[in-house]
Design brief:
Blueprint (H helix, E strand, L loop, with lengths): L7 H10 L2 H7 L2 H18 L1 H4 L41 H37 L1 H15 L3 H15 L5 H15 L2 H15 L3 H8 L4 H37 L11 H9 L8 H27 L6
Length: 313
């Protein structure tokens, strides 16, 4: 049985509130504002079916007469008013942003989780085993670092789609995109974890675990992994912003998600076609949402990096 009782819960919450990390967060204006912005966008995306005025990708809810309605102005034909206006198909831009952010966040989180899992696993193996396996993995990582991540993601996405039958390409597009972004970003996790593992494996607690006959996998998972996760969390936070931008870039280029699975990048690509005809809001508001999301997550990553750095305390 656990020694943790309901009476201990307030004390645990109080200790968490009084911790150095919590104090650093609540005394940093940049972290507070970034946290609020990121939380609002994430909650809006998760709760999109509940708070969006309508599902903009359900043809039954669309009215073409509402197309190109400016923000906060009544439509000339229907009289309907939309906060952020409508696009060429009469879709509410506010609703499309909520649903598009939902897809972008899912791709971003899934790609970071995949890259982090792959990078941590290979980094632990390379740092713990050493020898030719370490050399091989790090040479592969060095070669991959010579290519820009977005070009590598484009290559992986194109090759993967070539092996998928045409009938399943649209349904599998989101998973192919996640794998493409994840495979292009695993190197930074692997290199950081490898370096930390090479330091940790020579410490006394690891040597003691080896003496008592602990299995190498148990040593890696229970002893070394918890001690190398600090830098990984920082990289993952910053990597989330980069993954969201990568997804938006691929979708903007027309090689990401299909129109049936819209993201912020897809909305920006659609809005770009109407920018010079006067319908600026179709591009401006999705672009502002992507900028706010990526910037807030990136600033949170910068704060977390500084907060976990013992030299800055």
């Amino acid at each position: 049985m656990s020694d943790f009782t309901p009476e201990d819960r307030p004390n645990a919450l109080r200790r968490a509130w009084d911790s150095d990390l919590a104090y650093s967060f609540r005394t940093s204006p940049v972290a507070l504002v970034s946290g609020v912005v990121a939380t609002l966008i994430i909650l809006g995306a998760v709760l999109a079916p509940l708070i969006a005025p309508h599902n903009p990708f359900d043809p039954a809810t669309l009215n073409l007469m509402d197309g190109f309605t400016p923000p906060m102005e009544p439509n000339a034909f229907t009289g309907n008013v939309y906060w952020l206006g409508t696009d060429n198909q009469g879709r509410d831009v506010f609703s499309t942003i909520l649903y598009g952010a939902r897809t972008s966040l899912f791709v971003g989180f899934a790609a970071v989780l995949f890259a982090m899992t792959l990078g941590i696993t290979l980094g632990l193996i390379a740092g713990f085993r050493g020898g030719w396996l370490d050399g091989l993995l790090m040479r592969v990582a060095d070669v991959q670092l010579t290519f820009p991540s977005i070009l590598l993601a484009l290559l992986i996405f194109g090759v993967a789609r070539g092996f998928i039958p045409a009938a399943y390409r649209e349904a599998m597009a989101i998973w192919v995109l996640i794998v493409a972004i994840g495979l292009s970003d695993w190197v930074q996790y692997a290199r950081v974890v490898r370096g930390a593992t090479m330091v940790e494996k020579n410490k006394e607690y690891v040597q003691a675990a080896r003496v008592i006959g602990a299995h190498p996998v148990k040593i890696l998972v229970r002893h070394i992994l918890p001690n190398v996760m600090g830098p990984v969390l920082v990289i993952a936070t910053i990597g989330l912003a980069l993954a969201i931008i990568a997804e938006a870039t691929l979708s903007f280029l027309g090689v990401g998600l299909p129109p049936t699975q819209p993201s912020l990048g897809t909305l920006i690509r659609i809005g770009q076609g109407f920018l010079f005809s006067g319908e600026w809001w179709i591009l401006a508001f999705p672009s502002a949402a992507l900028l706010a999301l990526a910037l807030s997550v990136n600033l949170l990553g910068d704060w977390l990096r500084d907060a976990l750095n013992p030299r800055l305390r």
